Amino acid sequence: MSLPRRFTKMAGGGNDFLLFEADGRTLSAEDRAKVALLCRRGLSVGADGALFLSPSGPGRVRVDYFNADGGLASFCANGTRCAARYAVTRGLVAGEKLELETGWTPIRASVGRESVTLHLPPSAAPMCVGVPHLVVFVERDLAALPIDRVAPPLRRHPDLPDGANVNFVEVLSDRRLAIRTFERGVEGETLACGSGVVASAVVAAREGRVRPPVVCDTRSGVSFTVGFTPSDGAISDATLEGDAREIFTAELNEEAWKA
After folding, report:
1. Pairwise pLDDT comparison (78 vs 163), residue with the higher score
2. Are residues 67 and 133 in the same domain?
3. Of the listed 39, 82, 128, 193, which one is catalytic?
4. Which of 39, 76, 82, 216 is catalytic?
5. What is the C-alpha separation between 209 and 66, in angstroms, rounded?
6. 82 carries an active-site annotation
7. What's the CA gap between 97 and 172, in Å, rounded?
8. Is residue 76 annotated as a catalytic residue, yes or no?
């Protein structure tokens, strides 16, 4: 297909996205290269990734997510929350509840006035949140941690053949965490990572450091709430709640993907 020119810029908890109403499964290699060019900050629109939203039946939409490097990813929690908000506010589904088909698994969402909640599938240890995550606890001074130096070797650790997002976590109380994330595909620190927040909260709870629900503070200054029920090494009723906002709608011109 030809990459659509019309898009909507959205942000969820500190991650920003380009959202296109199109079927991402039909993107060509040239289209993916254009996505990477569009996501460059300073030279184009700039984003952590791109979302492609297409109808999938009553109360359902499909979401295909591409990282900032143009690579297809199975899931992005904050991107999925943005897609849910867009689908509801634009009338692509009826009501405020819907199901989103992602590359990982179908995800249910509830859209409120200022926040969107994802309802995640049950999981057993080790937990999967759509993409691989490594959780590293630090005792203090998380804000001063030189992530750009310490994260890349962990992101490409030999024991992680597919690589991983690396989450650095400081426990603030038995109900609160501070989290900074280095994301694969972006190859740098992002202001937030929804799936990383979930993984961090669950791992912290399994180690007895916190108990749900857990408030997670991110570098963006936006906090998320992660809820779940632990039982015999498994996790059920997991939810991720946080803001999702629409920034603007515009049309691209040829210079947007100029190399």
Report:
1. 78
2. no
3. 193
4. 76
5. 34
6. no
7. 33
8. yes
What's the CATH code of the domain at 174? 3.10.310.10
Residue at 213: amino acid letter: P
Whether 105 and 215 map to the same domain: the answer is no
CA distances from 195 to 6, 10, 129, 150, 204 (A): 28, 17, 6, 21, 14
Same domain, 215 and 249: no
96 in a structural domain: yes
Answer whether 0.70 is exceeded by the pTM.
yes
Give the chain's domain count. 2
Do 103 and 22 reside in the same domain of the chain? yes
Give Cα separations from 254 to 4, 42, 117, 180 (angstroms): 12, 16, 36, 35
Across 13-157, the runs of DSSP E, i.e. the strands, are 15-21, 49-55, 60-67, 72-73, 97-101, 106-111, 115-119, 123-124, 133-137
Residue 1 domain-assigned (yes or no): no
Q: For residue 241, what are its two tokens?
A: 């709640």
User: Which residues are bridge partners to 170 per DSSP?
Assistant: 178
The amino acid that residue 178 corresponds to is A
Measure the CA–CA gap between 183 and 187, rounded to whole angstroms.
Answer: 6
Query: Range of 230's domain?
Result: 123-241
Each residue's pLDDT tens digit, 167-204: 999 999 999 999 999 988 788 999 999 999 999 999 99
Whether residue 101 is found in the same domain as residue 133: no
CA-based radius of gyration for the chain: 18
